[in-house]
Amino acid sequence: MNFIKRISLCSLLIAGMAIMLITTGCSVDKPGVSQIEKNENKTVDIPDYSKYITLGTYTGNTYEIPSEYIYSEENIEEDVQMEIKTTFSELTTEQNVTDRPAQLMDNINITYEGLIDGEPFEGGTSSENGEDIVLGYAEYPTGFEEGIVGMNVGDTKEITVTLTDDVHNGETAVYTVTLNSITVYAIPDITDEMAQKYTKFNTYAEYETALRNSIETEYANSLAAYKLDLILDDIVANSTYNGFPEGAIDGLVQQAIDVVKEKSTELGISEDEYLTKYANIETMDQFKTSITKDAEDYMKIRMALSEIANVEKVEVTQSDIEEYKTMLRAYYSLDEGADTSQYESDDDVLFECIVEKIRPFLIDNNTFNVTEASAEAETTDSADTAASSEETAAAESSSN
């Protein structure tokens, strides 16, 4: 379920909150869609949006990709080991490390005092017992944790950083840091019996292979999604739009409003309170304005990809539809053959199939150059990767 922005499961990202438009299906009035054929070998009609859109160039373009989106074998191995530790966490033992310097991902305890122009400042000094952090994944100023890498237990050193908080933004602070301890959580050699107890696999080798394949697939899908986002931004910007199908935008907006009403009722709060708490939006009128823009952006993407599919003679079959519904059932733990319309309507399933069919074509027919990322960006991406690694291994995503 790892598709492009504002497309997967018809969700729209609103002020940092993902509001699911679909709990009962996200049907949009679409021209030219025929009843889905029951014959699996039959192709399904793709919507004809030609009177609403004149496509811009969608092939032969060149895009820049920051290097942090390109994952190495080292990144993959790191995530594999982290997920293994999570899966077999009951078997882990805590071990103090004294025979090597600190390295990224170590659990460490530090004490420190920060000075600005020789004077202490609020928030610049650790607690008396020190601070426990995972090295490389805490929220200290850039350069602080990097300065701890390579220290040995008992070492004290000065680390100079530039602060970026609201109070001291741009000021230089000098921290005196002492590394009190390094702790790692080790797991024993995993046996097949352990694998059977803690996973669905019969052997540890089977589990590790499946885990690695899952992480590699997720990385590949993330990169493909990023590439497609770049292409779509260009397509939407360079295409000419002549309105939307009647009722399409109003339908999407109303479904989002219905979700807000439903969720606020469940929580026993007003709609405005719900929007303020979860969407950082104060009133329903502001929400309507925000969601209308998102709905229009979504429909522009939907119309563009559908038109490209028609121009390039992409075919979606009933077999593709059924395969996608099977994936939906697995994702939502539904019984075989169960109705999936409460999660995605037939129209939405068709569109997801169009996305899957057209994505490889668009990526293969454009050029992508990798650019070096800044050190700050690399640090941020490492933290994001660690935060999402547990989800990665279990993700059920379709291949590019």
Structure report:
The structure is a single chain. By secondary structure, the protein is of the alpha+beta class. The chain has 2 domains: 8-69 and 215-373, Trigger factor, C-terminal domain (Trigger factor, domain 2), CATH 1.10.3120; 93-186, Roll (Chitinase A, domain 3). Helices cover 43% and strands 17% of the residues. The protein is built from 10 helices and 12 strands. The chain has helices spanning 73-87, 144-148, 192-198, 204-238, 248-267, 271-279, 284-311, 318-331, 346-364, 375-394; strands at residues 12-14, 17-19, 53-54, 62-66, 93-96, 107-116, 119-125, 131-134, 156-162, 172-186, 240-241, 367-371. The strands form 4 sheets. Strands 5, 6, 7, 8, 9 and 10 form a 6-stranded antiparallel beta sheet that branches. Helix 1 packs across helix 10. It starts with 11 loop residues before the first strand and ends in a 6-residue tail after the last helix. The model is unreliable at 1-38 and 374-400 (pLDDT under 50).
